[in-house]
Amino acid sequence: MIRLAVVAVLAAGAAALNIRPTQQTGVKRIDLLRHDLSTAGREVIQARVEVAPGFTAPKHKHPGEEMVYLIEGTLEYQLEGQPPVTLHPGQVLFIPAGTPHSAKNVGRSVGAELATYTVEKGKPLLVLVK
C-alpha cells in the first residue's frame, strides 16, 4: 500500500514538471523547470539531457542561449565555425542563441548534461539544421 502511494506521488510530481523523453532514440530530455522570465516574451527551461554512448545528436539550434553543465560522462560539442569542445563532469559550455551545434557521446557510458535555456516564449525549443 505504501509503495503504491509513493509511486502515485512520484508520477504526480513528474506530470507537474512535464517530464518527458524526446522521441529520438539515443537521446532523452527530461524537463525539470519551465518559468517566465522578468523580460517580456522570454522564459527559462531547464532539462536533464541524456545521450547514449556513441550517439550524435543531429545539428540543431535554439531560439535563445543554452548553458550546459556536464553531470556525467564525456560529451563532445561541435558549434558551427568553432573547433570541437569536449566536456567532462563539472565542466560548462555557453552556446549563443541561434548557433547551430551538435553533441556526441564520446565516452563508454551514458552522458548527461543539465541544460538551461533562456529562450523566446512560444517558439520551438529545438530546430533541426541541415
Please tell me about this protein's structure.
The termini are far apart. The chain has a single domain, classed as Jelly Rolls (Sandwich), CATH 2.60.120.10. The chain is mainly β and 130 residues long. 12% of the residues lie in helices and 49% in strands. The chain contains one helix and ten strands; from the N terminus they run αββββββββββ. A five-stranded antiparallel β-sheet has the order 1-2-9-4-7, with no helix packed on it. Strands 6-5-8-3-10 form a five-stranded antiparallel β-sheet, with no helix packed on it. The protein is globular.
Set out the fold topology.
Elements lengths: L1 H15 L10 E10 L5 E10 L4 E6 L2 E9 L2 E5 L5 E3 L4 E4 L5 E5 L5 E10 L6 E2 L2
Antiparallel strand pairs: 1-2, 2-9, 3-8, 3-10, 4-7, 4-9, 5-6, 5-8
Task: Summarize this structure briefly.
By secondary structure, the protein is mainly beta. It has one helix at 2-16; strands at residues 27-36, 42-51, 56-61, 64-72, 75-79, 85-87, 92-95, 101-105, 111-120, 127-128. The protein contains one helix and ten strands, in the order αββββββββββ.
